[in-house]
Amino acid sequence: MSDKSEIRKHVKTVLKNLSPYKKFTFSGRIQAAAIDIKQFKKARSIMIFMALGDEPQTDKIISAALSKGKKVYIPKVDGDDLLVTELAPDTVFEKNRWDIAEGGALTDKRDFDLIFVPLVAFDGNLNRMGRGKGYYDRFLKQAKGVKVGLAFCCQRADELPVEEHDVPLDIIVTEQYTIGRLNENNIG
Question: What mean pLDDT, rounded, does the chain reach?
Fold first, then answer.
């Protein structure tokens, strides 16, 4: 499979066949592994997505970050742009047109220690494929921070077609393994 639409369709089918129990269990493992990476432990500011039903959940990562005094930001779609809002205890959430929870005051912050990124598929070269609208790729081109994808192992493709605008990740955390680029800013 080398066509992006074919890959999205295949992964959507695979995820649909993953039982709620496995999604819940695997999400727990993914979140525990994400909290355990050294970049999370060192981070003072993180950006993280609010998970949809077919994505690994992020609630435990958010809770762990807030309990450790980290600044936590979540994405918010604003026209064709992805901006962020800072989470606060009194944040009121509303669902956007894609049923994603958003809330808080918009900011144009682009500098984070860690950026958790959703994905539809990934490959061993740390390429990611999103839902096809390009929000994250446009955002990540301008943002600073270690980019971490959260995914179920079943979302892995042999090789993804890569286009000029695609932004690769630094780390991918799944329920079975964590892969990353080895350098001084990353996994050492």
Answer: 88
